[in-house]
Amino acid sequence: MRILVVEDSRVVSRILQHLIAQELGCDVDFAEDMATARLLLTQYKYFVAITDLNLPDAQEGEIVKLVQGHQTPCIVLTGSLDGQQRKRLLQLGIVDYILKENRFSYEYVVRLVTRLKRNEKVKVLVADDSMVSRKFVRSLLEQQLFQVIEADDGLSALEILKSQPDITLLITDYNMPGLDGFGLILKVRESFTREELAIIGLSSDDDESLSARFIKNGANDFLQKPFVHEEFHCRVLNTLDSLDMIRKLWEQANLDYLTGVYNRRYFFNLFEEQLQQIEQKKTSLTLALLDIDFFKKVNDTYGHDIGDEVLVEFAARLKHFFGQHFTVARFGGEEFTVAFRGLNEDKVFSLMDKFRAQLEVEAIQTSQGPINVTVSTGIAGLSDESLDNLLQRADKALYDAKELGRNLVCIEGNE
To answer: Could you tell me which NCBIfam families the record lists for this protein (predicted)?
Structure first.
């Protein structure tokens, strides 16, 4: 990522240089005037340009059109801005403008660039039966580098969400034929939690209760049409920042800090909640409990840092092998589990033995070279019992695998 800063104040340039290096660590070019900026823009492709509005050789903000002429997003810095200038800048389609007031102004610039980089990977679905309104919202989102998808009604939006579950934000109008905004949100919340998808409602109706009704129905925020560009951008970015924070908290609570697979807490919460449903539907549930053989020797020989590298790679292989369809979790230390819904013990044995054999012949690469490890596995299938009892039985099978010489897969109850 490369950034262009066009600023004639050396003090401001030094502040930005320090903050960008500290927070972003990317390549930065500096220009003190428009002439230098023009040369740099012909030499490099920039992710974004941060530019002063008034330069020694461009007093009327001509730099903005120059930057945008090179298809480069533009963030404007200015010491002052009247209402007419602000309106003109927004019409030009800049990313944002920032008043040069204090250090916090420049910190905001860096946060904005960081957000823009994240936005490149964020899909936003805009649902509105008005093409004019859809295109306007789309243009605002594309200024912030989002990937934008359009739907002309609520039913189309639902189909798109089903086919593209990686959409992060839904922006929906209230009045739509077939399925209105309220109905769409209710349907969406049946499949997507607040950690998975954020929703912002829009409406031109003057009903004062709409905002509360949207949020009570599951939206994260609401905007009354017509809205100013800045408010729209602030609401979108604040909503996504909140979503990022919620996701981060969820990950801290439910993912293993070292390997990134689910942790013991998540595993128990998930299956204790599902256990009754599994038993009612007569669905099979089989657990495999795995333990890396002689892992203490790895730590004693190579050190705990290398041991951690082994754990990370082992978890990655488990996730690659099983994670698409089954639940992989770390229980602690070198012990992991895989939960198989819909498979009996014999099928799980076949899968786990294949994984065991593959691990035996494919060394784990570490910063101190390849290390060969093996794994012992115990398997138990659910009968009319608690999750704790099921795990105890899998642990008994794991004990048998170790007693019989390790690098084995054993099914509980089989001799």
So the answer is: GGDEF (TIGR00254)
From 7, 32, 334, 412, active-site residue:
334
Q: DSSP class of residue 53?
A: S
Rounded to two decimals, the pTM is 0.76
Strand intervals (E) in 7-142:
27-31, 48-52, 74-78, 96-99, 123-127
Are 341 and 328 in contact by the 8 Å Cβ rule? The answer is no
State the Cα–Cα distance between residues 312 and 364, nearest whole angstrom: 10
Give tens-digit pLDDT for 276-333: 777 777 788 999 999 999 999 999 999 999 999 999 999 999 999 998 899 999 999 9
R_g (Cα) of the chain, nearest Å: 28
The CATH homologous superfamily to which domain 2-117 belongs is Response regulator (3.40.50.2300)
Tell me the C-alpha distance between 406 and 153, whole Å: 59
Do residues 203 and 233 make contact, with C-beta atoms less than 8 angstroms apart? no
Mean pLDDT along residues 405-410: 96
Residue 181 near residue 211, CB atoms below 8 Å: no
Query: In the CATH scheme, what is the homologous superfamily, with its name and number, of domain 120-252?
Result: Response regulator (3.40.50.2300)
Any idea how long the chain is? Answer: 415
Which residue stretches of 255-292 are H helix? Answer: 264-280
Contact criterion met (CB below 8 Å) for 323 and 316: no
- pLDDT tens for 78-92 read 887 777 778 888 888
In whole angstroms, give the CA distance from residue 242 to residue 54.
Answer: 35
- Give me 197's structure tokens: 């998808």
- The domain 262-411 having CATH identifier 3.30.70.270: the answer here is yes
Residue 415, pLDDT above cutoff 70: no
Instruction: Tally Cβ neighbours within 10 Å of residue 177.
Output: 10
Q: Are 152 and 131 in contact (CB under 8 A)?
A: yes
The torsion angle over the Cα atoms of residues 381, 386, 391 and 392, rounded to 10 degrees, is -110
Phi, psi of 3 (to 5 degrees): -120, 140
CA distance 95 to 396: 61
Active site residue 334: yes
How would DSSP label each residue in 110-149?
A: HHHHHHHHHHTT-EEEEE-S-HHHHHHHHHHHHHTT-EEE
Place of tokens 């408010």: 231
For residues 303-314, b (16+ Cβ closer than 10 Å) or e, as one string?
Answer: eeebbebbbbbb
HSE-CB of 121 using CA atoms within 13 angstroms: 4
